[in-house]
Each structure stands twice: as structure tokens, then as C-alpha cells.
């Protein structure tokens, strides 16, 4: 469902993107080309700051937002998702938040008030809260990363992890093409 927010902002969805009919895209959301938005995802840009300002939620080219992902921002803060990133099933991205290019965010992970550098891989059920994670860091499943985290103890992304992240992105690009081809069939 594509709908306006209370300010009257309507999502801007590139015609080469695929949005599942069960997803809810509300308000000031910009979806780039070749983006996949899966079933039951909710992307909502509708909350303003005290002055009535609202930053958009931007989703970069070739990114996939999988089933049940929730994206929203406190007080109209910005959310930017880079190119060719994967936000996996039931993850939460709550702004303000910036996710770089070629990032993998695993199942049920939570990003809040953070910046994630290019090429990072965040595994399942991890929480990143209130910090900047530089490029190419690997966050193991169930980790809690915040302002007090010693980044010297965090591993870097290996070639195997990069290959996995790229395969997820490639698979979802194929889904965009397949679903676009059949989207008007019953």
C-alpha cells in the first residue's frame, strides 16, 4: 500500500523498483531503481520535528528491503540506505540512521541512531545503537554495539562474508526482475 503521510507527502518510487503489494510505504520515502521491497515491510516517513521538518527515507539503487522490515524515524530524522545493501527479514532501522553501500543487516537486527560504513556485515539479532561503525566491520550475531564499544575488538569483514552479502544482493536483484515481469498477473 502506497499512501500519503499527514503532511501530504507521497512516496516517490522508481518504476524499475518492485514493492510487494502487502508492503506499506508511507510519506516522504524515495525508492531508487532496482530496489526490492518484500512482503509486509513497513517504511514510514511521517513524524516531524518541533518545527514541522521531515527528512526523507532514501533507499539506494539495487538495495533489498526484505519481508517484515520496519523503517521509521524519530522526530523526522533522516534515514539513508546506500546502494546494493540488504536489510534482511524483520530487521528494524530506526532513524536517524545512515547505512552505507553494500551493507548486510541480518534477521531481527536493530539499527538506531547510528551510521554504518560501506561493506559492513551485521549478522542476525544484533543491535547497533548510538554510534558510528566504520567501513568493513563484521558484527557477529547477538552482538550489542554502542558508544562504549571498543572497535579494536571487532573483526573485519572476510572475503567469505563479502561473498555471502553479494550473493544475497544478487538473488534479490533477480527477484526484482522476476516480480516486475509478473506483477500484473493474478
TrEMBL record:
InterPro entries the record matches: Gamma-CA (IPR052265), Trimer_LpxA-like_sf (IPR011004)
PANTHER family in UniProt: CARBON DIOXIDE CONCENTRATING MECHANISM PROTEIN CCMM, CARBOXYSOME ASSEMBLY PROTEIN CCMM
Protein name: Carbonic anhydrase, family 3 protein, putative
Amino acid at each position: 500500500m502506497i499512501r500519503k503521510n499527514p503532511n501530504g507527502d507521497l512516496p516517490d518510487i522508481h518504476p524499475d523498483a518492485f514493492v510487494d503489494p502487502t508492503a506499506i510505504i508511507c510519506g516522504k520515502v524515495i525508492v531508487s531503481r532496482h530496489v526490492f521491497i518484500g512482503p509486509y515491510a513497513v517504511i514510514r516517513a511521517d513524524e516531524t520535528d518541533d518545527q514541522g521538518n521531515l527528512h526523507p527515507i532514501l533507499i539506494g539503487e539495487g538495495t533489498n528491503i526484505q519481508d517484515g522490515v520496519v523503517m521509521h524515524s524519530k522526530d523526522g530524522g533522516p534515514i539513508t540506505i546506500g546502494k546494493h545493501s540488504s536489510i534482511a527479514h524483520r530487521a528494524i532501522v530506526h532513524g536517524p540512521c545512515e547505512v552505507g553501500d553494500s551493507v548486510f543487516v541480518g534477521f531481527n537486527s536493530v539499527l538506531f541512531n547510528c551510521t554504518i560504513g560501506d561493506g559492513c556485515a551485521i549478522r542476525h539479532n544484533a543491535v547497533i545503537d548510538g554510534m558510528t561503525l566504520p567501513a568493513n566491520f563484521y558484527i557477529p550475531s547477538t552482538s550489542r554495539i554502542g558508544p562504549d564499544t571498543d572497535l579494536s575488538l571487532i573483526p573485519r569483514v572476510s572475503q567469505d562474508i563479502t561473498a555471502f552479502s553479494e550473493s544475497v544482493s544478487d538473488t534479490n536483484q533477480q527477484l526484482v526482475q522476476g516480480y516486475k515481469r509478473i506483477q500484473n498477473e493474478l
